[in-house]
Amino acid sequence: MNEFEQDPQTKRNDVLDAGMGFVVSFVFFSLIFVIATIVELVAR
């Protein structure tokens, strides 16, 4: 076992961090899509 496994900086569950990363990136790309859709509708 290496030294980093013996003394981790955080004991949080990685699933929570991965889920938050997914949600944040999903919201970001959704926001870009919504803005592009609005710009396209206004430009008509």
From TrEMBL:
Pfam family, one: YqzM
Alphabetized UniProt keyword annotations: Membrane, Transmembrane, Transmembrane helix
InterPro entries xrefs: YqzM (IPR025416)
Transmembrane domains' residue ranges: 20-43
Protein name: Na+-transporting methylmalonyl-CoA/oxaloacetate decarboxylase gamma subunit
Protein source organism: Bhargavaea ullalensis
